[in-house]
Amino acid sequence: MSAAKLLTFFKGVRVASDSYGNQYYREGFFFGKPKDRQPRRWVVYSGRAEGSKVPAEWHAWLHFTTDKTPEEVPPVNYKWEKPHEPNLTGTKKAYEPPVNRAATYYGAWQPDNDK
Asked: pLDDT tens digit string along 42-87?
């Protein structure tokens, strides 16, 4: 069993999950630690561990920018905002720029060798 699974099993208190299936935990108790330290917070990813799968509101909670979870204080969603998407590089949904038609039409320059 990995160290992360042991930490989650023995000290983790499940806080919530997000729309991607990621599970968020906080440290349940301190064992032999100073009382002035903040409890740890971590995420157990659904599937492959990829940091871009964490939405911004959960990122803020994980890094102690806010003490309230997105479930306690729902984020404000503006109409101009797009929904969060993880990094799609290396997948079938990855961005591909349009084909450069000029390069295929004109071809590469070749020097004259008939001097």
From this structure: 999 988 888 889 999 999 999 999 999 999 998 888 999 988 888 9
- Give the whole-angstrom CA distance, residue 18 versus residue 74: 12
pTM for the whole structure? 0.72
Nearest one of 91, 88, 108, 92 to 100, comparing CA atoms: 108
Name the one residue in this structure whose structure tokens are 């906080």: 26
User: Per residue in 80-113, pLDDT tens?
Assistant: 998 888 898 888 989 887 776 655 566 667 787 7
Inter-residue contact 11 to 29 (CB < 8 Å):
yes
Of 56, 112, 115, which Cα lies nearest the Cα of 83? 56
Quickly list H helices, the chain. Answer: 3-11, 56-62, 101-106
C-alpha radius of gyration, the chain, whole number: 24
